[in-house]
Known about the structure:
By secondary structure, this protein is of the alpha/beta class. The protein is 34% helix and 20% strand. The protein has ten helices and ten strands. Strand 1 (5-11) and strand 2 form a beta hairpin. Helix 2 packs across helix 3, helix 3 (102-113) packs across helix 7 (212-219) and helix 5 (160-170) crosses helix 6 (176-186). It is globular, with a radius of gyration of 18 Å.
Amino acid sequence: MMLSTSQYLTLNQRRYHLRRWGDNNAPLLVLLHGWMDSSATFQFMVDALQGKWRIVAPDWRGFGDSQWNDGSYYFPDYLADLDDLLRQLSPDQPVNLLGHSMGSMIAGIYAGVCPQRVAKLVLAEGFGLNPTRPAEAPGRYSRWLREISQAMGFEPLESLQQAASRLIARNPSLTPERALWLAAELTRPVDGGVVYRADPRHKMVNPVLYRLEEAMACWRRITAPALWLLGEQPFGHSVVSDVMATLDQRRACFARLSEATIAGAGHMLQWDEPEQMAAEVERFLLWQD
């Protein structure tokens, strides 16, 4: 396992934890994790990379060891956090950007809003959410009002082994050794066991509807070559249940798009088949136009 180092930076007025691997003089690759995850999620993929890279992965606000919000979480804040991070890491040069799931959605929007800041873009299992309708807004706001008035928390788990078993139940391809290591990274000790590190307010409903048309408008402005990475096994979460039906429509927004399917992998590509994922990522990043 390649050792990482920790660093703390202030990004958009929040204390952020960054995980770093590799050679500081090598090309920069920024990795963005998904919802209820952390920068540790990429460890196995990083271990499988063959070339020399300067790799930086933040814990998004409210995840891992980064500072929590005082209230709800809103998507534009992640864009501002990422923009501040890239200005500090590489103020004068565009960067290679890889996102998984929620991190992929952030990376895709950012690459359209600030196309000059992204050299190459890898979107792993993050092609947007289900389209929403304005009629959904009253119910969404009503639920959000109920939730902000309630105390939010995670029930402690008895042990790391229980946390690891839950990871394997959701990701059957995950080996017991990797599951136990991830469980330790995604939880912290408390009296009577362990509890997830993430802010439980991430479980609250987002009162702002997802507008597919806005995402597509951003994707059309991307100038960087983009790679979609898909797991062979479909992701069954309800928030993306209708994405596959509109995948061609979403795909058409990207001017320079290539795709690869990771055999044997589900949604968590970097856990299920990190070697395959690393090979596809390096093939894309090292490919010359």
